[in-house]
Amino acid sequence: MTRMFPTFQVRLYGLDPLADYILMMDFVPVDDKRYRYAFHSSSWVVAGKADPVSPPRIHVHPDSPAKGGQWMKQVVSFDKLKLTNNQLDDNGHVSKRTPRQTRRR
């Protein structure tokens, strides 16, 4: 299990200061390819077709729920987020089975 590096940080604006919000993050594949790191060229290269997409694992920010005013007064960081390749993980970690390009949402 590894911590995500660099950590994802965001500043929020326009929330209702008195409303409660829950912040969540998950990852979705960018394409259907698997990648491996090529040390000789210091880059990621395509290594075949990726495994089938598994259901998303959602990471809830540990300060959730909180008022909009609380979220907007500081940078929100997902620094406790950990990635794992264990599909049976029940510790709330985000699961990534194979090296593939993903985007946060």
From TrEMBL:
<protein>
    <recommendedName>
        <fullName>T-box domain-containing protein</fullName>
    </recommendedName>
</protein>
<dbReference type="GO" id="GO:0000981">
    <property type="term" value="F:DNA-binding transcription factor activity, RNA polymerase II-specific"/>
</dbReference>
<dbReference type="GO" id="GO:0005634">
    <property type="term" value="C:nucleus"/>
</dbReference>
<feature type="domain" description="T-box">
    <location>
        <begin position="1"/>
        <end position="105"/>
    </location>
</feature>
<keyword id="KW-0238">DNA-binding</keyword>
<dbReference type="GO" id="GO:0000785">
    <property type="term" value="C:chromatin"/>
</dbReference>
<keyword id="KW-0805">Transcription regulation</keyword>
<dbReference type="InterPro" id="IPR001699">
    <property type="entry name" value="TF_T-box"/>
</dbReference>
<keyword id="KW-0804">Transcription</keyword>
<dbReference type="GO" id="GO:0000978">
    <property type="term" value="F:RNA polymerase II cis-regulatory region sequence-specific DNA binding"/>
</dbReference>
<dbReference type="InterPro" id="IPR008967">
    <property type="entry name" value="p53-like_TF_DNA-bd_sf"/>
</dbReference>
<dbReference type="InterPro" id="IPR036960">
    <property type="entry name" value="T-box_sf"/>
</dbReference>
<dbReference type="GO" id="GO:0045893">
    <property type="term" value="P:positive regulation of DNA-templated transcription"/>
</dbReference>
<feature type="region of interest" description="Disordered">
    <location>
        <begin position="86"/>
        <end position="105"/>
    </location>
</feature>
<dbReference type="InterPro" id="IPR046360">
    <property type="entry name" value="T-box_DNA-bd"/>
</dbReference>
<dbReference type="InterPro" id="IPR018186">
    <property type="entry name" value="TF_T-box_CS"/>
</dbReference>
<keyword id="KW-0539">Nucleus</keyword>
<dbReference type="GO" id="GO:0001708">
    <property type="term" value="P:cell fate specification"/>
</dbReference>
<feature type="compositionally biased region" description="Basic residues">
    <location>
        <begin position="94"/>
        <end position="105"/>
    </location>
</feature>
<dbReference type="Pfam" id="PF00907">
    <property type="entry name" value="T-box"/>
</dbReference>
